[in-house]
Design brief:
The protein is mainly α and about 475 residues long. The chain has helices at about 5-20, 20-30, 35-55, 65-85, 85-90, 95-105, 125-140, 140-145, 155-160, 175-200, 205-215, 235-250, 250-260, 265-270, 270-290, 300-315, 330-340, 355-370, 390-415, 420-430, 450-465, 470, and strands spanning about 380, 385. The chain is about 65% helix and about 0% strand. It is globular and about 65 Å long.
Length: about 475
């Protein structure tokens, strides 16, 4: 175990993150909102922490293996979560637990909040919340991987530990650094296009920038308590739907579409096709149910609200134009269940990922076929790609652990004092990185106790790093040299 190398890289990553505190300083200067000193203090603390970790260990060997990658990623997210909580403590004066919850929710792109009164917060704090989600959407570690080769630091182990989705070896470029840089160019381009769209459809430049951060990252933080419902604008809702979908699709598909100047890659990809087909089916079900129960007087209102909420939930963005927790019959729980599916692998969305769900259904159908035709031989495929048994085992292993962790956390939430509905939805919204829930956490986590917030914080980290990245550290075999 190369402990000095691990400390050096975590310190280096902390120093990179400290630079992200500079833009909120500039926003504070522009709006003169009194937060400049708070962000200066935050920058110094984060940067000095990084220096103290990096300087004594910078000459350590930089070659590391997959095992060190898991440790670095986990340490980085834990250390970064604590560091990024500092502005929330000295600015809005949140307690440490509340500040940590808000910071983790931002950086994991969950969107759950403990803050009430967003409309009165200083602009620099609102910008900082949105920027946290934007950085977490693609993953700061992917950015670091793009820079590390220039410093002679290998990054493939970090990429595999941090990247979302079941097929982490897939790269859009032969070299990992080129892959990371291409992803960030796409990410910045989509964010700029989203901000422009919001501005042209009526948002102020500030709101457009912050909401573009939290839309493309599928994070869902807003500058207003009413979320996007504050603007009451159909064009703004359409821009949000378009870019939430973009964030929920595999970024490798965006790359192929841009290079080939064609939309064909989206429909040719089995995962993306399943993702879009499921969204249409969910919209039909929910819109027809809303219309049947008379929730909306006009059919177009039922359809428009269904489209927005389904896209927002399945991409784990969590924006709202309506309070779906008050919808009739089975709809609130249905939307929570939809969040378990999530977006595509290689996207910024949360959930289990469409590719895993698709493969589980395919294997279930395959098992039924084997019962009918015991001697048949049918390999498991996605499109034209034949998948190895190892991938199938990994996906079922992930699903089993996912269910066990979800069940355990639900019980612990109930032990912490939450009722059954609130506990169930609180764990679902945290582990799926969604944001809004049901019951007491339908809008905010402000009223739940400290124990429940800490459980939610851990669930968000587990969900963002897809459980195994953290749980593997609890295995005794992992620590044997």
């Amino acid at each position: 175990m190369k402990r000095l190398s691990i400390l050096a890289i975590v310190g280096f990553l902390c120093m990179i993150f400290s630079l992200s505190v500079i833009p909120p300083m500039l926003v504070s200067l522009i709006y003169d909102d009194g937060e400049l000193l708070h962000f200066v203090i935050s920058f110094v603390l984060i940067h000095v922490t990084g220096l103290l970790l990096w300087l004594p260990t910078r000459k350590a060997a930089t070659d590391f293996q997959r095992r060190e990658g898991f440790i670095i990623v986990t340490l980085f997210w834990v250390v970064l979560s604590v560091m990024s909580a500092i502005p929330f403590m000295i600015g809005p004066h949140l307690s440490f637990v509340d500040a940590l919850f808000e910071a983790v929710s931002g950086f994991t792109t969950t969107g759950a909040t403990v803050i009430i009164g967003l409309d009165t917060l200083p602009p620099s704090v609102l910008y900082y919340r949105g920027q946290l989600q934007w950085l977490g959407g693609m993953g700061l570690i992917v950015l670091a991987v793009a820079i590390m080769p220039m410093l002679g630091i290998g990054g493939m182990q970090l990429y595999k530990a941090e990247a979302p989705g079941p097929m982490k070896e897939e790269k859009i470029k032969p070299r990992l650094a080129e892959t990371a840089r291409s992803l960030w160019v796409l990410y910045v381009g989509l964010t700029g296009a989203c901000a422009l769209g919001y501005w042209l459809t009526g948002m102020s430049p500030f709101d457009a920038i912050v909401h573009s951060f939290t839309t493309v990252s599928t994070g869902g933080f807003s500058t207003h308590d009413a979320s996007l419902g504050y603007f009451d604008s159909v064009p703004i809702d359409l821009i949000a739907i378009l870019f939430m979908l973009a964030g929920g699709l595999n970024f490798a598909l965006h790359y192929r579409a841009v290079i080939g100047l064609s939309l064909r890659p989206y429909w040719q990809d089995p995962e993306a096709r399943t993702f879009l087909t499921f969204i249409v089916a969910a919209i039909v079900l929910i819109a027809s149910t809303l219309w049947w129960f008379g929730e909306y007087q006009q059919l177009h209102e039922a359809i428009s609200n269904s489209v927005f909420e389904v896209v927002s939930v399945i991409t784990s963005t969590g924006f709202g134009t309506a309070d779906f927790s008050s919808w009739p019959s089975f709809l609130p729980v249905t939307l929570i269940f939809i969040s378990f599916i999530g977006g595509c692998g290689g996207s910024t969305a949360g959930g289990m990922k469409v590719s895993r769900v698709l493969l589980m259904f395919k294997q279930g159908a395959q098992e039924i076929n084997f019962l009918i035709h015991p001697r048949s031989v049918r390999p498991l495929r996605i499109g034209k790609q034949v998948l190895s048994p190892r991938i199938s085992q990994a996906i079922w292993g992930f699903f089993s652990v996912y269910v066990l962790v979800f069940s355990l956390f639900t019980l612990l939430m109930m032990a912490a004092g939450l009722d059954q509905v609130t506990a169930f939805s609180a764990v679902a919204t945290c582990i799926n990185n969604l944001g809004p829930g049901l019951g007491e956490v339908a809008v905010t986590f402000a009223s739940v106790g400290t124990a429940a917030k800490l459980l939610g914080t851990l669930a968000m980290l587990l969900g963002r790093l897809e459980i195994f990245t953290i749980l593997v550290l609890l295995s005794p075999a992992f620590w044997r040299d």
